[in-house]
Amino acid sequence: MPAELGKLARLQSINVSMNSLEGVIPSAFGNCSSLEIIQVHNNKFHGNIPSNLAQCRKLKKLYLGNNFLTGGIPPTLGNLTNLIELRVWQNRLSGFIPATIGKLQMLQWFDIFSNFILGEIPHSLYNISTMVAFDLGYNQLKGTLPFDMCSAFSNLERLHLYNNQFKGQIPPSISNCSALKQIELDANNFSGIIPFTIGFLENLQFLVIGSGNKLEAKSPSDWMFLDALGNCTYLQGLYLNHNQLQGVLPNSIANLSKSLTALRLTGNPISGRIPPNLGKLTNLETLLLDDMLLDGTIPEEIGNLFQLKKLILKGNVISGQIPVTLSNLTLIEELYLNNNALEGSIPLELSNMRALQWLYLSTNKLTGRIPKEILGLPLLIFLDLSNNYFTDIFPPEIGKLKNIQSIWLSNNELSGEIPNTIDGCQVLQTLYLDGNMFQGVIPSAMSNMRGLQYLDVSKNFFSGPIPEFMGKLNLLYLNISFNKFEGELPKKGVFVNISGIDIRGNSELCGGVSKLHLTQCISISKLPKKRHQYHVKLVVILCFVIFTIVLAIGIPLLVTYYSRKRHVRLLNPKLMHTDRPFKTEFMHVSYHDLVRATKNFASENLVGRGTFGAVYKADMSFEHATTVAVKVLNLQKHGASRSFLSECEALRNVRHRNLIKVLSSCSSIDQHGNNFKALVFEFMSNGNLEAWLHPNAEVFVDLPIRTLNLVQRLSIAIDVATALEYLHYNGPNPIMHCDIKPNNVFLDDDMTGHLGDFGLARFLVPNDTVPSQSLTSTGGIRGSIGYIPPEYGMGGRPSVEGDVYSYGILLLEMFTGVSPTDERLRDGVSLHKHVKMAFPEPVLNIVDTRMFSGPYVEANTYASENVFGCLFSVIQCGLLCSNQLPKERITIRDAIKQLNSARKKLLSVEVTSKMLQF
């Protein structure tokens, strides 16, 4: 902007806003003594605000917003005594608010929104009786609001102080600002109760005091403000989210203004039922009651909110069925009922919600088939039905969802094949089908889905080859693990990025890029046809000959062997019970083998010590492993022998990818003639979880100090939970681990978690009052201090609920970084209580900040909505698992559902950031 403008002595108004002007604001403006209006907002000006603008004594309006101005607010602006509007929003201004601004006794609009202004608000500003709009949001202001702040603000209509660092109470005298229409104090550190005098503001339209404050309601009298707000007949928006409001939601909430369009109570520890009379607020468009402690059922009266566009009840303990009356909400666009305990089937009538775009029903107990009527909703963008108990086939009507971008059907009981109609979902980006019973091949119809970026079909029964077209799709992530795929893996697209694919559990796959270390493919079809036929005939003949010889020789030998064996056992009853700890499928090793492999149990091979012995690193060949871990029992320790038997008995009956794999055992005599017992396990190169959570513990002395990010911790937590689910539900009798703690969670090369150390494990025998005595390890309380369930200390027997308690404590420890035996937990405060006191807000103040690294978290600051939502679900899960009473704990299966939901929330970064922009 040319400095020559300063020569226009009679210039009264300049408006160059909404352009792309650059450079600095000319100081020559100070020469324009007749200037009354300067509007240079929405440009690209930089530099400081010229201090000599104070020479424009007739100036009434100064608009400098939305530029790149730096420096401070010039104190000389306090000389502009005729100034009515001072607006410098969205710049890069810093420093303090000059006290001289208080001299502007005609000022009506003071707007410094979105800068870097520091310090406290000068008291002189509260004396400007003409002030109408006071916009100070998104700065770094601090301090408290004075008790008499409204003594002169009789004309104030807008009070915007959000996203600063104010603290203390909201002064009851705020009712003296009788003209107030908008109060926005969210994202500060205000505390205390909400003053009931706020209900005296008859013109109030918006009250926004959530997101990061610590406002309380601990008793019914603390909710008086809600009764008083019934006087605010113009109230349109009430946002109290993420505070510390407790107790039951008062019925007086139904007395709020009939003009109310938005009600948000998210993230408060409010309990009890949803008041049915909420259905009287018939103009509501947004109702957010999520991430609280609500129980009971969804009132049918919610169906009376005909104007509702967004209903979010996720993250509670709501049970019962989805009421059919919700189908009356024909304008609704977003419906979140996930992470509750809803039962029954999805009402077919929900197909009346023709405007629905977001449908989230995941992590409930819903059953039945997926209604084809729901798949006819024309505007549906996101569909999440994961972590339920849906059955039947994948509905072919899925192809009708022309606008669908994300489909989550994970962890249900769906079967059949992927229908060819799936190619009708042309804009689909995310498809999660993992954890079901799907079968068949990947349909060729998916070759047309060029927008697909995330595909997870793991833990199903898919078979056949991986189609070549999969390498031509624009996939960023592909999980085909634990299926029955076979043949050659493509070498294009996502298959080149080994960090973006998971192919584990498909033993018949071959080829692929070299980094995957798969076996080379041998194609018989490439042999000459005649040679091929010859080879087939030869193989058939040889197989027949060998089979005949085996039958001829083997049967007589077997008959002779078993006859002699039975004769010997009858003569010597002592031989009727073998002392070998494992079945014959395990290869046994001798004491001398272990001595050689560990270099005589040298100290440099010692990797850790446990309750009943020490663990050594050994060089031995087992299956595909060349390095193993040898656990040598200290038989001088009371209970060690029983621990050995317990671990042998437990491990001989279990096989799971998240349980540490036993390779062999040794029960022998050492070089001194003493009894010797040892177990050989697969070696976990990344040690145990204790060494990662608390590096100074030096459990594994050869590990450098490292830490786990949020994604890794969540994955490991799910790994451990999955192992527990297998122990509790897979066999005829549940197996209780009885000693779940970080020391017993081991990490392999890929940082996958494996549960180990079954020295205290016990079987639960049905219709028996005590567990199997053959598995007793000690006569006292089972477990480790801090992780032992309360009922064990009162003589209770081991139970699956006890394991869940220990797991809950482990989960809280993983995400807070605080050990249950930490010296910070004093005066009888347990880790459960320590976390619960800070839940649900401010949960970010107690989590381990070391976890905020890694691609998913760095892409979204640790305080972002999706990370907060993930942490909320995880901490909530830990608290539910570690409740005092066993009957109040959730099952490990429910925990897995909640954690999978949390992981999906974290990993679907692009989707979630859109989902949570309320």
Automatic annotation (TrEMBL):
It is an enzyme of class 2 (transferase). Keywords: ATP-binding, Cell membrane, Disulfide bond, Glycoprotein, Kinase, Leucine-rich repeat, Membrane, Nucleotide-binding, Phosphoprotein, Receptor, Repeat, Serine/threonine-protein kinase, Signal, Transferase, Transmembrane, Transmembrane helix, Ubl conjugation. It holds the Pfam family PK_Tyr_Ser-Thr. The chain crosses the membrane at residues 538-562. It catalyses: L-seryl-[protein] + ATP = O-phospho-L-seryl-[protein] + ADP + H(+); L-threonyl-[protein] + ATP = O-phospho-L-threonyl-[protein] + ADP + H(+). It comes from the Eukaryota. Its main location: membrane. ATP binds at K631. It is a single-pass membrane protein; Single-pass type I membrane protein. The keyword Transmembrane applies. One of its GO terms (molecular function) is ATP binding. GO terms for cellular component: endoplasmic reticulum membrane; plasma membrane. SUPFAM superfamilies: L domain-like, Protein kinase-like (PK-like), RNI-like. InterPro entries: Kinase-like_dom_sf, Leu-rich_rpt, Leu-rich_rpt_typical-subtyp, LRR_dom_sf, Plant_receptor-like_S/T_kinase, Prot_kinase_dom, Protein_kinase_ATP_BS, Ser-Thr/Tyr_kinase_cat_dom. It is found in: Cell membrane; Endoplasmic reticulum membrane; Membrane. GO terms for biological process: maintenance of meristem identity; regulation of root meristem growth. Residues 601-907 form the Protein kinase domain. Its EC number is 2.7.11.1. Receptor kinase that detects X.oryzae pv. oryzae protein Ax21 to promote innate immunity. Following X.oryzae pv. oryzae protein Ax21 detection, undergoes cleavage, releasing the processed protein kinase Xa21 chain. The processed protein kinase Xa21 chain released by protein cleavage after X.oryzae pv. oryzae protein Ax21 detection translocates into the nucleus where it can bind and regulate WRKY62, a transcription factor. Confers resistance to the bacterial pathogen X.oryzae pv. oryzae (Xoo). PANTHER family: OS04G0122200 PROTEIN, OS06G0583600 PROTEIN. This is Receptor kinase-like protein Xa21. It comes from Rhynchospora breviuscula.
